[in-house]
Design goal:
Elements: H1 4-16, H2 23-29, H3 31-47, H4 51-65, E1 68-69, E2 74-75, E3 80-81, E4 88-89, E5 94-95, E6 100-101, E7 106-108, E8 127-128, E9 133-134, E10 139-141, E11 145-146, E12 151-152, E13 157-158, E14 166-169, E15 174-178, E16 181-182, H5 192-214, H6 219-232, H7 236-241
Parallel strand pairs: 1-4, 2-5, 3-6, 4-7, 5-8, 6-9, 7-10, 8-11, 9-12, 10-13, 12-14
Antiparallel strand pairs: 14-15, 15-16
């Protein structure tokens, strides 16, 4: 029985959510907790072969909480959904222990699932390891694996496997840090938006050099501005390309 997991889920919410003050508040006022309890019931029915009843329980929970968890999904212990509105977890999703996801997260099917009934019964949704945190609005699509201790930044779209102990940022998701160290640039998946901004920056710098060569009198002011930016070490484009705001 999965009921033994309910009590430790309450304790996990009290430990990780600073807004949670007591057990009664969690039981009465946390839609993420309500969705998990409903899923435990629906999953028991699903595994017993009562698929329509399981789907109905899941549907009622979706109406009441705004969180959609397919009864076929496999969810580990101490799973927390914070706020939760708009969360979607697909049928063949597997989630490990001690995972934490925020509102608007989608653990969805990949492109292969667009083939409809041909992929019924096949693995179509992601597998999350233990201690994974997924930020608001992030999407993880397809039968990929997100390793243990991974952090997925808000708004990211993950389309490939993610190794353990990584931080994923961007669209598409890129591993920027692994084991506490920044990943070499040549190993990072290219970001189309970042590349476009980089090209524009290079073009602007080229035009500035041409202006400097044509207007010797005004070159000093441009050079001074460039020197000031370099001295401060906070070129906003460089900061963007390093992952901030992507």
């Amino acid at each position: 029985m999965q009921w033994q997991f309910i009590d430790e889920t309450i304790e996990a919410i009290l430990e990780k959510d600073p807004a949670a003050r007591n057990r009664l508040e969690v039981v009465l006022c946390y839609p993420g907790f309500h969705a998990i309890v409903a899923h435990r019931i629906a999953n028991e029915l699903w595994r017993a072969g009562h698929t329509t009843a399981a789907r109905f329980v899941s549907h009622v929970a979706r109406v009441l909480t705004g969180i959609e968890i397919h009864p076929g999904a496999t969810i580990g212990r101490r799973f927390i959904i914070d706020h939760g509105m708009g969360v979607v977890i697909g049928e063949t999703t597997v989630i490990g222990d001690d995972c934490f996801i925020y509102q608007g997260v989608t653990l969805g099917a990949g492109v292969e699932a667009r083939q409809g009934e041909k992929t019924r019964g096949q693995k179509r949704h992601p597998t999350l390891g233990n201690n994974v945190v997924v930020g608001s609005g992030a999407e993880i699509q397809g039968a990929l694996r997100v390793g243990d201790n991974v952090r997925v930044a808000s708004g990211s779209i993950v389309l490939k496997d993610v190794p353990d102990n990584s931080i994923v940022v961007g669209v598409p998701g890129r591993v920027l840090y692994r084991d506490g160290k920044r990943v070499d640039d040549d190993k990072v998946t290219p970001d189309p938006e970042a590349e476009a901004i980089k090209r524009l920056k290079e073009r602007i710098e080229s035009l500035e050099r041409q202006v400097q060569s044509l207007l010797a009198g005004g070159a000093g002011a441009v050079s001074e501005e460039r020197a000031e930016t370099n001295a401060q070490g906070s070129d906003p484009v460089d900061v963007f390309l390093q992952g901030a705001g992507i």
